[in-house]
Amino acid sequence: MIFSKELLNKFELIETPFYFYDLGLLKKTLDILNRESVKRKFKVHYALKANSNNKILKTILGYGLGADCVSGNEVELAVKSGFKNTQIVFAGVGKTDIEIKTAINHKIFCFNVESLQEMEVINLIASSIDQTANIALRINPNINANTHHYITTGLEENKFGINASELAQVIDKLNSFKNLKLIGLHFHIGSQITYLNVFKELCIRINELQKWFADHHIHIDHINAGGGLGVNYEKPDENLIPNFKIFFEIFEKFFETVPGQSLHFEIGRAIVAQCGSLISKVLYVKEGVNTNFVILDAGMTELIRPALYQAYHKVENLSSSGQQKKYDVVGPICETSDTFVKSVQLPETKRGDLFVIRSTGAYGEVMSSGYNLRTKVKSYYSDEL
Ligand code: LLP
Fold first, then answer.
1. What residues contact 107, with CB distance under 8 A and at least 6 apart?
2. Ligand 1 atom closest to Cα of 227?
3. Neighbours of 235 (CB within 10 A)
4. Which residues contact 87 (CB under 8 A, 6 or more apart)?
5. Is any ligand 1 atom within 6 A of the Cβ of residue 242?
6. Which of 206, 258, 299, 348 has the most neighbouring CB atoms within 10 Å?
7. Helix (H, G, I), strand (E, B) or coil at 287
8. Whole-model pTM?
C-alpha cells in the first residue's frame, strides 16, 4: 500500500475521480536526476507535454531544469512559470507562424527544426522582426526504439525530423538564411523506452553524423538526445525512481563529445509518471458471462493511455482485503475501449470501494478530455491534504 490510512481517510472525503500527486516522490526523483546529470555536465530540459500542472512545474523549476516545449502555449507557460528563456527548446513538426514569432520574441535557447521548409519560414519570420533565431536540426536517425508504434518517432517512416540524406541540401540552404544560427543537432527516437540498448545505438549514430559535420567544418555547440526513458508500469513500487544512472552512463560511455560541446536531454515521463495516481470509486460491480466487471467512475476521459496505446497501468483496490477474484476494470464511457485492465486478480470488490490507477503522472491529466461532456478532472497534491 503506497498510501497511509490517514491519507485514505482524506481521499474518502473528496469527490472522485481525481488525480493525486506525491510531491515528495517528485522531489526525490529530481534529486537523483540532478545528482546523475550535473556530475556529468548533462543539461536536462523537462518535457512540459508530460504534465504541465502549475505545482509540478514550480517543483521542477526549483531544481534548475530547462523546458522542452511543443507549442506556443507551452513556451508561454514555461516563461510565465519562471523557466529561463535561455533554457527553453521548442520542437514539433507543425509550428505555426504565430508560435514561431512568440518563441523568437521570447529569445528562447533553440528551435528544434524538423524540415527544410520550416527553416525557411523561421528565417523569414526572424528577418521580418530583425532577430536571429538559434536552431538545432532534428535529424531522423532511423533507429527503432522498440516501443509502441504510436510513440516511435525515430524511423524514416515517421513524420519527424530531417533525413540524413537531406543534410547537404540543408546546410547549403542554411548558408543563405542570414537570420538563423545553427547551434545544435536534435534527436528523439520515441517514448517509454525500456530496452536501453537503443540509446547505445543512438549514440553510435550521433557519432557518425558528427563526423559528417566535422568533415564539412561545421561546429555544433550542443547535441540534444531527446527523452524517452521508460518507467516500470507493471511493478511501480520496485522502481519508483527510474534508473537515471544507467541511462546517463550509456551516453557517458558511448557518446563521443566534441570539445566545447554540451549534451542535452528532454525528459518527461521518467520525471513525473510515478508521482501521479488516478483515484476513483467503484460505481457498480456487474456479473458478466465470462468475467465480472468493476465499473469505475474514472474512464478513458481521465486516462486515455490504455485505450489509445493498450498501455498497462497497475490497478489496486484500496478499500478491500477480501478474497481474490478475477475482474475486468472498466470506465463509464460509451466505448468498449474504455477498459483499464482485463482479467486482473483483485480482492473482492463492492460499490463504493476506492481504487487507484498507478503511474499516471505523465500523459494522464494532460491528455484528459471532455468527451461525453464529462467534468474536467481535478488534481490534489500531497502538501495540501
Ligand atoms: N522530446 C520530444 C521531441 C518528444 O516528442 C517527447 C515526447 C519528449 C521529448 C519526451 O519524451 P519522454 O521522456 O516523456 O518519453 N502520450 C504518449 C507519449 C507521447 C510522447 C511524445 N513525445 C504516452 O502516453 O505514452
1. 85, 86, 131
2. 13
3. 11
4. 43, 45, 65, 66, 67, 109
5. no
6. 299
7. strand
8. 0.97
Distances (CA, A) of 68 to 45, 76, 84, 132: 5, 12, 12, 20
d(CA 15, CA 298): 11
281 lines ligand 1 (CB under 6 A): no
Span from the CA of 50 to the centroid of ligand 1 (angstroms): 7
Identify whether the C-beta of residue 211 lies closer than 8 Å to the C-beta of residue 218: no
Nearest to 335, CA basis, from 369, 377, 384, 365: 369
Q: Could you tell me the distance, in angstroms and rounded to a whole number, from the CA of residue 228 to the centre of ligand 1?
A: 6
Domains of the chain: 5-18+274-381 (2.40.37.10), 23-272 (3.20.20.10)
pLDDT tens by residue, 152-191 = 666 676 777 888 889 999 999 999 999 999 999 999 999 9
**pLDDT tens for residues 286-321?**
998 889 999 999 999 999 999 999 999 999 999 999
Q: Which amino acid is at 55?
A: K
Distance CA 368, CA 363 (A): 9
114 lines ligand 1 (CB under 6 A): no
